């Protein structure tokens, strides 16, 4: 079987489709969820980079000499707007870029398996791909789609209740201290139903309900980052100020509820986070032992979960919150003179299950 990679003069529709699925229709550049048709395949390290530019990028990003710009680890979905913007700016290493490259490398084996499973598009596979790519802004196409799509949905229903699920996207701006934190939500049918119960039965507003847990999550991320500097053997027992987060992204990808006796409702949220921050570190100089102050920078990614509970005895929209739990985190630390990685046991977050038949 030939290696799966981007084909410069070939059909990359299946590859684009799988990238959209596994990246959950999220543009790697602006981090926004986008419509299926708005996403394109992007070469993270540009395929247009000349020999000298590519050599500079390999050194700056610490890439292998044989780094292949067409390989799956260098591919990710990007929206049209970001793709145009990328073409007009100088390409430099940033913490967001490094996060993207880490994710693309982790997903590359899954992308390869799903593309290979699809194989050469069959007659049915081609029809399904064409259906996903139709322009619903075209009136005639939309009418045809509305007329015949229900039959496909009905066939999917024959696979079981999960066969007809789909995702919608929602963004909430939550007041955390003196700033607004954007919370992105990726909601399937069960999650949408949960939000309806939270807002209409428990009488809450989602943005207000997320204030306390979001604040607790950011504090926990800062605490984890601070601890990693303190615990690092490379630091030599430093005195570390609390890490100040200067950028954070929170995405909720699972929302569920449970009805408890007699009429209590427990709402469960989980998702992933990315953040970057900095701190001041006081430590003994490695050469002469004199006290020195250096800046430490960190990026940290991971998963989180928390619960909100409501009972009829509470006022409408009044939820009880216990704690937020961070897991599967990975932190990159850098100080003057070097950088290194700290992490706990990494467990891949849940991704869409690979279907037994070609993805639709």
**Mean of all residue-level pLDDT scores:** 85
State the helical fraction.
25-40%
- Give the low-confidence spans: 345-360
Total helical segments? 9
Q: Structural class of the secondary structure composition?
A: alpha+beta
Q: Tell me the number of strands.
A: 10
- Order of H and E elements: HEHEHHHHEEHHHEEEEEE
Radius of gyration: 23 Å
| Distance between the ends | 23 Å
Biggest pleated sheet? 8 strands, mixed
Shape: flat
Portion in strands: 25-35%
Characterise the protein shown here:
Mean pLDDT is 85; it is low at 345-360. The protein is of the alpha+beta class and 360 residues long. Strand 7 and strand 8 (291-310) form a beta hairpin. Strands 3, 4, 5, 6, 7, 8, 9 and 10 form an eight-stranded mixed β-sheet that branches. 27% of the residues are buried. It is built from nine helices and ten strands.
Short description:
By secondary structure, the chain is of the alpha+beta class. The protein contains 9 helices and 10 strands.
Write the layout of secondary structure elements.
Layout: H1 13-22, E1 39-43, H2 51-60, E2 75-79, H3 80-86, H4 95-118, H5 123-133, H6 139-157, E3 168-176, E4 179-187, H7 189-201, H8 206-209, H9 211-231, E5 239-240, E6 244-260, E7 264-284, E8 291-310, E9 320-335, E10 338-343
Parallel strand pairs: 4-6
Antiparallel strand pairs: 1-2, 3-4, 5-7, 6-7, 7-8, 8-9, 9-10
Helix pairs in contact: 1-4
